[in-house]
């Protein structure tokens, strides 16, 4: 194996997720929009020490990341995106993906500029 191939093989998905310069999460697209996963940048950006602390504070629901008076607007936006089958720009970057184990799920990316 040449040096370039060795370097590429040593870069794991875990490394990439941990070092992306954005905070992101994955959540279900039905029901309560349950948080399935986030990289460590998300709890950090929001002031939590760990993913467990984030889940405890939000009850594991993505809408609980939104200020209470804005939740209905966000819920309407998510519902419209699902009805249209695509995501229109709003407060974050997201992508709707069909995943065999979960059905349709959202991949959501937030950056510091969106949190201020």
TrEMBL record:
Gene3D superfamilies: PAS domain. It comes from the Bacteria. InterPro entries: PAS, PAS-like_dom_sf. This is PAS domain-containing protein. It comes from Lactobacillus equicursoris DSM 19284 = JCM 14600 = CIP 110162.
